[in-house]
Design a protein that fits this description.
- The complex is a heterodimer.
- Chain A is 56% helix and 0% strand.
- By secondary structure, chain A is mostly helical.
- Chain B is mostly helical.
- The two termini of chain B are 19 Å apart.
- The chains are: A mainly alpha, B mainly alpha.
- Bound molecules: fe (ii) ion (2 copies).
- One fe (ii) ion binds next to helix 1, helix 2 and helix 5 of chain B.
């Protein structure tokens, strides 16, 4: 579980084009996603990497990097590969 | 506005909306890694860019030039229709777009007296547009096991409603231009 969280965290940092240290868990998603199309790209990237399907109601409710990681871990049964 | 002014506006509008489509699919083509979708989507992106070129070329043949158009249908679409959150929703919104585009071109083609240059351009584009609808429909069908048929159908229905709304709100200018153009052309040729 710790491993998968790290992997998701790394993927989010990669998407944001940031070092892991510059992408803390409390970083607002709005700092990473600045336009509506980037939102689509982010969802597609996470879906592709972790086989997680966001819904149009779930994704907007995720406010921080930490929220996204928890969501993906939970959606993949705590074993995001 | 004269007949030629309306024609210039309409062709500029088509060109602008093909460019907007191409930019949309270009960004998607960059993000999507699923090989079967990536292949068709990249061709789709290239087609839309080609369509923008065909309109540009057609306008030159008609001795007119593209106008700057404020915003395309697609520009307002994502906000109004709801931003797609997964690959299936992206394809569902794409299918809705494409059906709208085909309807617009089909309508224009029916206006009596439409110039051969425009008819040829629309015919060439329509061939691709039919393929766009075909591959996206096929891809959505292949997604039934992953997303469930009901979720896919509900999403398509949601976007269809949004499309009607966006069209009514944002496309008045297009509809008026087309209507006035058709009237003037009828006078011209009738
Ligand atoms: Fe097109
Ligand atoms: Fe198209």
């Amino acid at each position: 579980m710790a491993d998968s969280s790290t992997e998701i965290h790394e993927a989010v940092a990669l998407f944001a084009n940031r070092q892991l240290a510059d992408c803390p868990l409390d970083l607002p998603i709005s700092d990473i996603i600045t336009d509506s199309f980037q939102y689509v790209e982010f969802a597609l990237d996470m879906e592709d990497r972790f086989q997680v399907t966001f819904s149009d109601t779930d994704l907007p409710s995720l406010k921080t990097v930490g929220d996204v990681i928890s969501y993906i871990v939970a959606a993949s049964g705590g074993t995001a590969a | 506005m004269s007949h030629d002014d309306h024609e210039q506006w309409l062709l500029s509008y088509y060109r602008h909306s093909e460019i907007a489509g191409s930019l949309f699919f270009g960004r998607l083509a960059r993000s999507i890694r699923k090989p079967e979708i990536q292949h068709d989507l990249t061709r789709h992106y290239a087609d839309e860019a080609q369509h923008a070129w065909l309109w540009t070329d057609c306008m030159r043949e008609l001795e007119t030039a593209p106008l700057r158009i404020g915003s395309a249908y697609q520009d307002q679409y994502l906000e109004a229709a709801g931003i797609p959150s997964n690959l299936m929703e992206v394809l569902a919104i794409t299918l809705t777009f494409e059906k709208r585009v085909i309807r617009q071109y089909a309508e224009h083609r029916l206006i009596p007296g439409t110039s051969p240059a425009i008819l040829t351009t629309i015919s060439r584009i329509m061939e691709d547009e039919r393929w766009h609808i075909e591959w996206v429909s096929r891809a959505l069908k292949n997604m039934h096991p992953q997303y469930g048929e009901t979720y896919i159908q509900d999403t398509l229905e949601r976007y269809r409603h949004a499309d009607e709304e966006v069209y009514a709100k944002t496309m008045q200018e297009y509809a008026e231009q087309l209507h006035q153009f058709a009237e003037l052309q009828e006078k011209h040729h009738g």
